[in-house]
Amino acid sequence: DAWMEYVAGGGLVWDLQLAEYVLEGQDQSSHMLSMDELALRYDEDLKVDEVKKLWEAGVDTPDIDPDLLSRYLLGEDLPNGGRREGDIGVTRNIFLKQLARAQKEGMSRLLLVEFGALVASIEMERNGMYVDKALGYKLADELRAELAEAKQQLEEYLPADLPFTFNWSNRYHLSPIIFGGKVKYQRRQYDLKDGTTTWQAPHEPGLAKLHFAYAQKDELHYVLADGTTMGITQYEDSLSYAFGNGGPAPPERVQYKAGKNAGEFKTKKVKVDDYDKPKSRMVDAYWEFHGFTKPLEEWASSTEGLYSVGSDVIKTLTENTNIPFLKTLGRVTAISKDLGTYFISDDGEKGMLTLVGDDGLVHHSINHTSTVTGRLSGNAPNLQNIPKGNKSKAKQMFVSRYPDGDIGQSDFSSLEVYCQAWLTRPKLLIKDLLEGLDLHCVRLAAKERMPYGDVLRLSKGYFNDDGTFVDALDEWDYKRTGAKVFSFQRAYGAGNATIAKSTGMPLEEVEALAKAEDERYPEINKYFAELEKEIETNAVPTTNFSAHPLNPAIRVQTKISRIRTPDGKRYTFRSHPSQGWQLKRGIISSFSPTERMNYPVQGLGGQVMKAAMWLLVREFYRKKNFSGGAVLVNTVHDAAYRDSSPQWSFASSVTMHACMEAASDFMAWWFQWNIPLPVPTDSVRGANMGEEVKLNSDEFKAEVAKERADLRVRYMAGFVPNYLTLKDYQ
């Protein structure tokens, strides 16, 4: 109760690792830093490590010598009169230095939001998610059967005479079958007696053993009267055949005429071919695939003829080509990932089901210091990465811990689009979002020079006056899909030519969409062009050098640059070796356009979610987790989850939805940022994480509006954002 009251009243914890990560702009060099690494950075004493070693050896704290514990925590006086700080002193000193730095650099408010989200994560990890283990094992068996079927379907896409085992998860195999190229494998080569070689084995039909070279072995032969020899078994078989068929008998055998062996047939050991051991060796051979599509230049790897087959590339190809096996491969990948992550591996040693406690709960980890944008990640298991919608059976396992309870979810709608609007402030984009327009149809209408309403009807269908539904026209549905793919790829920095190649759209179509986009939302290009200049202006060289992957003779020096967004957040950019077309122009390194367009938008989305998390944990704690009847359990990128008893299901969903909506209000108030419009959210609930019954009744909306207003009074001093006074928004 004391902890809940402390947090509800605004109390926080200062986390040194998280603070350093944020102060350093999420740079990879500052991910998951240890206390010792921080101590070195801030010129502080390293802690006495004997205690840590005892803990690692399994010694319980009460069994550790009290004097040793005291030195570890409180420090010790040194023989020379100095003093070495302990764990508490080092922590205090680093905190004070971080605090001074945050205040000097204007990042204190940003850090407090980070710490608020951290407290929410601690609560979610503590509560964990309840798992129906019996259902989990049943679903795992079903998935294994699906996986076996999908793998068999994959094999049917391979040539029947393929002489090696194809590995669908090996890029050296997957790149050639998709883009064309050779796969190297080991094949047995056989020697012939004439000095040549063959790939065919001696036992294959139509081949004469006599032509092959063999290892030699000793064989006992009869000595024949004509001076030759013949194997004993062979001679006796020949003799039997001659007598039985009246044919010529083999030459007579030589007999001993005297001595102890008199009358016996003479024999001798002879070197003969060992037909069980043909002379052969394993050598490199190559199988050439013709491929299904041409790769983009930027997908090239440092290995000649080999291209990236990462998840992003496969997704692009699946959406924009007709390569026959990609959807099946996607199923295999998804099912394998689900089994190994959320269910249980074949050896029974990996998977979420191994982490579920006797109480049915899995206490996952939510990581705050592991991404370059500030987004959260997860592990043990990674519940941040469960696919949205019904793409994974894993969601069915996560049920309520309360009898007849439910799982509630509130998910920001198109968060990145709203964040882009916050940063770039395009007037028409803001208007389009306020009016709830389909942005892909907006782009298509601008490109086609047609009214938006007409394009919407053609692309998505419409209801007639008599209530019958008229389906969309295939041609326009295809055009809208093209506009959708275009918008996503362009948002991540792809150029027109790249989009055309990856989607199969004619270049002139892509250029027309780009022109329409630039004319309608000119502020977006202007913002990112200015950001590019800022990144280049702020860039400083590092001490890191590496060989250019396309020309090892060229040494590339990495540059680092940092920029800030209106919420005070810092982003770090590192230069990369240039692409082929840049190298031809004398450019050996550059900053990634994709990162430039991605980091601020993705990162801001993460901050909006963190603001919501801080509000959520304070409000749930203020209500003492609805008297213990509802608890926060997880966050998945743009969504928050709670577990509730039937009694508190509606009320806790109202609170969660209101906190998500109020996150925009809080960002505007906390950072004194004139945000142009709030991010909407959608809420659902169901018997498990995968069941989604929408919450959008008039009663629900009214309760949310009331609670959102209360949140602004309680946590924002009654602040009213400008957008709430706009006629368009109302």
Count of separate DSSP helical elements: 25
Shape: globular
Q: Low-confidence spans: pLDDT under 50, at least 5 residues?
A: none
First-to-last CA distance:
40 Å
- Strand element count: 25
Please identify the structural class as seen in this structure: alpha+beta
Mean pLDDT: 91
Rg: 36 Å
Order of adjacent strands in the largest pleated sheet = 22-23-14-24-25
Strand proportion, as a percent range, falls in 15-25%
List the quaternary state of the chains.
Answer: single chain
**Could you describe the largest sheet, including whether it forms a barrel?**
5 strands, antiparallel
Write a structural description.
There is one protein chain. By secondary structure, this protein is of the alpha+beta class. Helices cover 44% and strands 18% of the residues. It has a five-stranded antiparallel beta sheet. Strands 10-3-13 form a three-stranded antiparallel beta sheet. The protein has a three-stranded antiparallel beta sheet with strand order 5-4-9. The chain is globular and about 125 Å long.
Output the keywords.
single chain; 730 residues; alpha+beta; 3-stranded antiparallel beta sheet; 25 helices; 25 strands; 18% strand
Short description:
With 730 residues, the chain is an alpha+beta fold. It is built from 25 helices and 25 strands.
Describe the secondary structure blueprint for this structure.
Elements lengths: L1 H7 L7 H8 L11 H7 L8 H7 L9 H9 L1 E2 L5 E2 L2 H18 L3 H20 L1 E3 L1 H23 L15 H9 L1 E11 L5 E2 L15 E10 L5 E3 H14 L21 E12 L1 E10 L21 H10 L5 H17 L18 E2 L2 E3 L9 E3 L18 E2 L6 E7 L2 H10 L2 H8 L4 H10 L3 H9 L1 E2 L5 E2 L3 H18 L4 H8 L3 H14 L1 H17 L1 E9 L2 E14 L5 E5 L1 E2 L2 H5 L4 E2 L2 H30 L1 H5 L1 E7 L2 E6 L4 H22 L10 E6 L6 E2 L3 H18 L15
Antiparallel strand pairs: 1-2, 3-10, 3-13, 4-5, 4-9, 6-7, 6-8, 11-12, 14-23, 14-24, 15-16, 17-18, 18-19, 20-21, 22-23, 24-25
